[in-house]
Structure formats: structure tokens, C-alpha cells
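SAMPLE LOG
Freezer: B-3
Tube label: C17
Construct: single chain, 128 aa
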Amino acid sequence: QVQLVESGGGLVQAGGSLRLSCAASGYIYRMGWFRQVPGKEREGVAVFYINTAGVVPAYADSVKGRFTISRDNAKNTAYLQMDSLKPEDTAMYYCAADARVRPLYGDDRFSSQNYNYWGQGTQVTVSS
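STRUCTURE (predicted):
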């Protein structure tokens, strides 16, 4: 079975940094990071996708230039480095994965409906 375990959340001041980790087990084809605040839909913030150049990252406009998704295949772990954090980044962050081998394009890459495995979430709180 696929299992995802996030860690690394916490409380930081605006402008600070955090690095989230997602330890994965089982077969996965696609992985990304999502976040959710109460009353709103879960939104994708950073994902990997495959093109002719290989596995490349993509970011939501709201985090582009501040967040970096990476992976360590030997450790079966993905990371989300979050720099220049803003209070608007406060959310529960989730590691997501999908085992279905299929292409996704554009906004579909950031849709929670296209991922079928989820971690338990790790809270990130950014104070003013």
C-alpha cells in the first residue's frame, strides 16, 4: 500500500523558512504538495511532472520563486523548501501522490482530484 508521511511544519515568522518532508512507500507515479485552510478547497502549490526533459517541477503562481520542490530517490522522500514565508502561506500542508500512469497538463497538475493518496498533513503557521 502507498503511505505518505509529512513532517517539518511549525510556527515561523514572516520572511522565515521551513522545509517539509514527505516519506513515501509503495509505488507512486506522481507526487506533489498541496495546502488547505478552513473553508477553502485544497490547492496545489508544487508538483512534479514529466516531459521530454525528464521530471521537472511546476509551481502555483502564489509560491513561485519562494518554494522549491525536490526529491531524494534513494530515500524515497520528497521535500518542499519554503522561503520568504508570508502569513498567507498559513495552512495545513499535504503530500499527495497518484499511482495512475497518465499525463496531466496545465491546471490539472494542481488539482487535488487527480491524486489518490494523501499524507496526514503538517501544519504551517506564519506569523506577522
